[in-house]
């Protein structure tokens, strides 16, 4: 360990501890504000409920088999749609960029399809795939696929051409360039797309369940809202937020581990 590294460690600790403390204070402050708005009748409790009722309800809900089943259904739909979108999005992105002609032909179609409102496709998916989990998986797939595809194309187009030229001068063939230059250079873009898609996947599964579902957290939101039970709506929303946050934290840790060679990752 060099002297510069040793000197930098206290600075890093001084940086990270206040950030964590600020996050905790921000979350606690938001909860206290929410509680105060309802307790002092600034906003009617009927409309916003309050944390002292919502969080015990979360614990009670997750202590039942039905609660964990709803979480599992939503998680299953989000994960499978996300995995399919990542797989086909990355593969098709690399295939499209292999030929300038194919990229020029397909580029306007990709833009048009990416602009289609995903919620407008839910009725079609229900007719095509039914109201079971398959329609929700396909909905999540459509939400995430074009995000991954566009980011993959942008990643490959953004590869430093000097690196490609150097690789060719060193005798690398097309497969070597793909494996040792294109893919490593694309990973940061793909992680950015992945973190975006995680939230979109969970949210898309919930919305699809709200429109036509027979289980999952989205179905819980829809049923609770129909009964004007806003406490349970907040219960489901907070659980969804917790799932998305945990997935994002795991992806961020994985990104830092896999991209330790990047200067920004080394600095953090």
TrEMBL record:
PROSITE patterns: ABC_TM1 (PS50928). It is a multi-pass membrane protein. The keyword Ribonucleoprotein does not apply. InterPro entries: MetI-like (IPR000515), MetI-like_sf (IPR035906). One of its GO terms (biological process) is transmembrane transport. One of its GO terms (cellular component) is plasma membrane. It comes from the Bacteria. It is found in: Cell membrane. The chain crosses the membrane at residues 20-43, 78-97, 109-131, 137-159, 189-213, 233-252. Residues 71-251 form the ABC transmembrane type-1 domain. Keywords: Cell membrane, Membrane, Transmembrane, Transmembrane helix, Transport. PANTHER family: ABC TRANSPORTER PERMEASE PROTEIN HI_0355-RELATED, ALKANE SULFONATE ABC TRANSPORTER-RELATED, MEMBRANE SUBUNIT. Belongs to the binding-protein-dependent transport system permease family. This is ABC transmembrane type-1 domain-containing protein. It comes from Falsochrobactrum shanghaiense.
